[in-house]
């Protein structure tokens, strides 16, 4: 392990002067007589930036500020009745609605933790195995990534059919091999419904972290592992002390993106469990709660309540993502 650390330190020390030398040489060349390249015209830059900025404004910025505005008013159907201040936010955390909110929030947290644990572990394992494999690598990468190219609505519908207790393929397969005791109402049991959703979600998205980890593994110089093996490190020690620390940036990216996606999850749960988060609210999440508040709410102030919920979700997801990104950057800097 000492030799591995020395090799890493020597390569990083050697990289600094070379890059600095190239920078000075190129800078000197421009100063001696080569005129600096012309900047692209403003019209050309605007032609590339404005379409994307317009789409971002229409579909992201405008709805965000509209939701914030709507949340500060009371509504009578689609008519704005008057300024409400923070009353809509207060109602989220009081009475019966507070119980529904915290239950859905807890399910989102469990959904994220379960997906993160299974998805990251299996994605990393598959990436390592494919990195060492010489045959069928491209085929397996394609096979693992195909599910997340399919709409979650379609995935949820197909899995709800396969998990049906009456005619589902999963229970039929278990009975066919004599494992009748393992046949379960996977989406109908309150204790099994959420774990089942986590496994289906992991099945669909496992290809994404696998691709990120594969790219990160391809960028790790083989000299690091060879130096560690020369020092007598076993394969497990090489992975834990050399490979895994260098994969932390990729793990951080997967964690943040998984958090954002799982806190916003709606389509998969809706397709498999309906808008009520069946059975008995065991799979209710914030996305479903927002849907019911906005579109199935008999209260005339549905727009104000749902907008307040949307703002709270955005602030929480955005805040946690920013903090997590900064923490991961500091951890990455310590490894350099």
UniProtKB/TrEMBL annotation:
Record's subcellular location: Cell membrane
UniProt-listed GO biological process terms: transmembrane transport
GO cellular component: plasma membrane
Keyword check for Nucleotidyltransferase: no
InterPro entries with a match to the protein in the record: MetI-like, MetI-like_sf, UgpAE/MalFG_permease
Topology versus the membrane: Multi-pass membrane protein
Main location: membrane
PANTHER family according to UniProt: BLL4140 PROTEIN (PTHR43227), DIACETYLCHITOBIOSE UPTAKE SYSTEM PERMEASE PROTEIN DASB (PTHR43227:SF8)
Family (UniProt): Belongs to the binding-protein-dependent transport system permease family.
UniProt protein name: Carbohydrate ABC transporter membrane protein 1 (CUT1 family)
Originating species: Allonocardiopsis opalescens
């Amino acid at each position: 392990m000492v030799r591995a650390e020395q090799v890493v330190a020597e390569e990083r020390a050697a990289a600094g002067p070379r890059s600095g030398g190239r920078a000075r040489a190129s800078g000197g060349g421009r100063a001696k007589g080569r005129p600096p390249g012309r900047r692209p015209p403003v019209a050309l830059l605007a032609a590339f930036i404005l379409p994307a900025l317009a789409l971002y404004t229409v579909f992201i910025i405008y709805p965000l500020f509209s939701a914030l505005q709507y949340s500060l008013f009371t509504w009578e159907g689609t008519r704005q009745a008057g300024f409400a201040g923070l009353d809509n936010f207060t109602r989220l955390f009081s009475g019966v609605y507070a119980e529904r909110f915290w239950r859905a929030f807890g399910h989102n947290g469990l959904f994220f933790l379960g997906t993160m644990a299974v998805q990251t572990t299996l994605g990393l394992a598959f990436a390592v195995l494919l990195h060492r494999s010489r045959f069928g690598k491209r085929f397996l990468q394609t096979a693992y990534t195909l599910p997340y190219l399919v709409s979650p609505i379609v995935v949820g519908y197909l899995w709800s059919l396969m998990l049906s207790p009456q005619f589902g393929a999963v229970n039929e397969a278990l009975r066919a091999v004599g494992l009748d005791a393992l046949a379960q109402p996977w989406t109908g049991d309150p204790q099994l419904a959420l774990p089942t959703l986590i496994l289906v979600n992991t099945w669909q998205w496992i290809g994404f972290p696998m691709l990120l980890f594969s790219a990160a593994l391809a960028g790790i110089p083989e000299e690091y592992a060879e130096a560690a093996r020369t020092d007598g490190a076993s394969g497990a020690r090489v992975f834990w002390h050399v490979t895994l620390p260098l994969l932390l940036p990729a793990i951080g990216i997967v964690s943040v993106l998984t958090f954002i996606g799982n806190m916003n999850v709606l389509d998969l749960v809706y397709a498999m469990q309906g808008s009520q988060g069946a059975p008995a609210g065991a799979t209710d999440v914030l996305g479903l709660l927002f849907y019911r508040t906005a579109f199935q709410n008999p209260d005339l102030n549905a727009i104000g309540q749902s907008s307040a919920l949307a703002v709270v979700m955005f602030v929480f997801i955005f805040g946690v993502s920013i903090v997590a990104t900064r923490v991961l950057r500091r951890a990455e800097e310590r490894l350099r």
